[in-house]
TrEMBL record:
Keywords: Cell membrane, Kinase, Membrane, Phosphoprotein, Transferase, Transmembrane, Transmembrane helix, Two-component regulatory system. It comes from Spirulina subsalsa FACHB-351. This is histidine kinase. It is a multi-pass membrane protein. SUPFAM superfamilies: Sensory domain-like.
Length: 477
């Protein structure tokens, strides 16, 4: 079995546990960081979606509240459909209070139309009816809300055939119109309507409020979603309502404005997110509960949350938040790098300590090893271990015992060597001759015993010399 040198094993025993500890710590830190990323992305996307839903609800509540106020005013007699001039001033005052809407108006069952709108920071009054020969006339307003100068004379206009009016008549309840592109401003708009019925339950008109969705789009663009996250609102058919990016919600095609579907968006992230949702749910209309998932696109991981938005007027939209994993990994990578740097610094320090400790521990052992080798070559100097013998620790005790043993072994070896030399110097026994055989029987026996004794002694000395030589040749561990 091959053993590792102490010069190598001691530093390894010092560094190996630290390497294992740093590796385990780094692995656990990275695992916990990934779990934290999932949790943070879920919490952030949920917070953003809730914030957008709250803002959207607040924004779209105003038109419905205005319609309800106007309907209540009609019910209690404050609004008289037979005094449309007073209604014009009422709408003019109202739109200055509710400055998030763009148009407040009424269409009657007799074809009359009265309304007030915001235009470039000012206010105008719209009039259609028998007095205008059904032409759509737009006036600037005085400081009291009366008609001032004619600003525009439009084509003939009958509110009773407009989509917002016919849809309300069919529903017989407050509703939202379909999202459409306003012809003049070329912005997305939506209309909240409320049917007006007399005491007999007959429909005599429809209150309506227009809002431009660019205000909602501006709000989305003001949101800070991690570093590069995005949020967008879409209808169930995929058409964009607004987004936090620079993506247009409608593009011109000739004289018309064509709405943009998210699956055809020029924004690759929005398009990839929509395609993922369609693939996962089969159809955007099937997303019923808020859902936090992740998907890969172009080698990057994205977290996505799709949350339905509904209101009492029948709106059914989707709020979608998408956040790249890289927005969170930047911090995780920085922490991982710091962990690795501290780990490498600790390893370098441990390596230095290990080598210093190794030299401090191994040096006396190597000196004792050299001393043991010198014994086999009969060049041992008992003064070579004097400094080690002076130590008061275990090394000193071991050096003292080793030196004493070395002296004893040296003395014994020297004694054996001298005895062998004496034996080799003894004259050989004379051979027996015919003349010697003439001696007495006692002399012959005495000579044989003496020769036998000398031979046994020589054999014993050789065996002892061989044993001591083997022991002395064995290196001290």
């Amino acid at each position: 079995m091959k053993y590792i040198s102490l010069r190598t094993s001691i530093p390894l025993l010092t560094i190996a546990p630290l390497v294992l500890a740093v590796g385990l710590t780094g692995g656990l830190a990275f695992y916990n960081a990934r779990q934290t990323i999932d949790q943070l992305s879920s919490e952030l996307s949920q917070e953003i979606a809730a914030q957008v839903a709250q803002k959207t609800e607040s924004f779209l509540t105003v038109p419905r509240q205005i319609n309800q106020l106007n309907y209540d005013g009609f019910q209690n007699g404050k609004i008289n459909l037979n005094n449309l001039g007073l209604l014009e001033r009422y709408f003019w005052h109202q739109i200055q209070v509710f400055n998030t809407v763009s148009y407040i108006y009424l269409g009657t069952s007799t074809g009359e139309f009265r309304g007030a709108e915001q235009v470039d920071g000012g206010f105008q009054i719209g009039v259609v009816g028998a007095s205008t020969n059904s032409l759509f006339l737009t006036y600037s307003a005085t400081s009291t809300g009366d008609r001032n100068q004619l600003v525009d004379q439009g084509d003939r206009y009958d509110p009773r055939i407009r989509p917002w009016y016919t849809a309300t008549v069919a529903a017989q309840r407050p509703i939202w119109s379909e999202v459409y592109t306003d012809f003049n401003s070329r912005q997305l708009a939506i209309t909240a309507t409320h049917p007006v019925k007399n005491a007999q339950g007959e429909l005599v008109g429809v209150f309506a409020v227009d809002v431009f969705l660019n205000r909602l789009d501006d709000f989305l663009k003001s949101l800070k979603i991690a570093e590069t996250g995005q949020v967008f609102i879409i209808e169930r058919d995929g058409f964009l309502i607004g987004s936090s990016g620079s993506d247009p919600t409608a593009i011109p095609e000739g004289e018309e404005m064509q709405r943009v579907s998210v699956v055809e968006s020029q924004n690759p992230i929005l398009q990839a997110t929509a395609n993922y949702l369609v693939t996962r749910f089969g159809d955007l209309s099937l997303v019923q509960n808020q859902d936090h998932q992740s998907f890969r696109f172009e080698g990057n991981q994205y977290f996505v949350r799709a949350q339905p938005f509904r209101d009492q007027g029948g709106l059914d939209w989707l709020i979608v938040v998408v956040i790249p994993e890289a927005d969170f990994l930047a911090q995780v990578n920085a922490q991982t790098q710091m962990t690795l740097l501290f780990g490498l610094a600790a390893l370098v320090l441990a390596a230095g300590v290990g080598f210093v400790l190794s030299n401090w521990l191994v040096r006396p052992v190597m000196r004792l090893n050299d001393a043991a080798l010198s014994i086999t070559t009969r060049r041992f100097d008992d003064q070579s271990l004097e400094d080690l013998v002076q130590r008061s620790d275990e090394v000193g005790e071991f050096a003292q015992a080793f030196r004493d043993m070395a002296v004893v072994v040296g003395d014994r070896t020297q004694s054996l060597s001298e005895q062998l030399e004496e034996l080799q110097d003894d004259p050989p026994l004379p051979p027996l001759t015919s003349e010697s055989s003439l001696g007495s029987e006692e002399q012959v026996t005495e000579r044989q015993d003496s020769y036998k004794t000398l031979r046994e002694r020589a054999q014993t000395l050789r065996q002892q010399a061989q044993v001591h030589h083997r022991q002395d040749s064995t290196p001290t561990p």
